[in-house]
Amino acid sequence: MDLYSSIKPAFVTLLLLAGGGRVLFLFFQKQTRTMWMTIGIVAVLGFFINGPQETINAGNGLIRLVLNWISTIGG
C-alpha cells in the first residue's frame, strides 16, 4: 500500500493531463458528445484512483471556500 500511496499523485496528475488534453482536442473539433463522455470517464477514474473519502473531502473544501467567500462579502 505504501507503493500505491507514493505513486498516486503521479497517477492523478497524468490522468488529469491526459484527460484535459483529450477534452481540449475534442472541443476544438466540435465533438461535444464525445467530449462529455471523456469528462465523465476521467471523473469516474479520478474518483476511484483518488479514493472516495478524499473526493468527498475535496467537495467539502470547495463548499467551505464558497461559504467563507460569501461571509466576507458583507464586510
Automatic annotation (TrEMBL):
Keywords: Membrane, Transmembrane, Transmembrane helix
Transmembrane regions: 6-28
Protein name, entry field: Uncharacterized protein
Organism: Weissella oryzae (strain DSM 25784 / JCM 18191 / LMG 30913 / SG25)
